Amino acid sequence: MIERARAAGLTRILVPGYDLASSHAAVALAEAYPDLIDAAVGIHPHFADRPDAADWAELATLAAHPRVVAVGEIGLDFFRNHSPRAAQEAALERQLAMAADAGLPVLVHDREAHDAVRSALLAWPGPPGRAVRGVLHCYSGDAPLALELAASGYLISFALPVSFSSAHGPRDAAAALSDGTFLVETDSPWLAPGAAGARNEPTTALRVAAALARLRGTTPEAIAASAAKAYRVLVSG
Questions:
Q1: What CATH code is carried by the domain that includes residue 164?
Q2: 3-class DSSP state for residue 150?
Q3: Does residue 46 register a pLDDT over 90?
């Protein structure tokens, strides 16, 4: 899979954690493939009520690892509600503080929680000295929210749903954003192209880039160049 990604022309992949074990696995991948993979570490809102004090301390230590470039995937999910909302909100606040302490941007999950996520992110000053505060992953909001967050130092990241005609908000956002304010992603293993059970690989990002190019009246190559520039700013500060 990694060699297929290289052969397809991908030059950088960010692998996030969703709990402590997957955060360690993301760091291990980044250590094994430093020329291709970066890591993020975090607790997804689905698992927000599970970590104990020792787990949070271990995650904070892992955030200081040199191969870690962001804290995530963090955020709020008021659609599934696998963790109580209070636990999700507490975990988000804890990890925003952790990111600031580590000097890292955040990768944010937002599902059916736009107002709460907006309030939390706009109130957070971000990591000191960083040009970009974080990323709205697999964006599902509308164009006004995307423009407001982009103006406040957040990148908007699009996955394959931006190619769906029913995804009115993300598609409007994709057309409205300025160059340098968006990324492309796969949301692997979810949102795979094709039939149920299909594999979602890094190369799916090429389909996302093609969809964005159509929406923005440009070329996939221009989308890739813009996203690569935005990513460099994200990870370099």
A1: 3.20.20.140
A2: helix
A3: yes
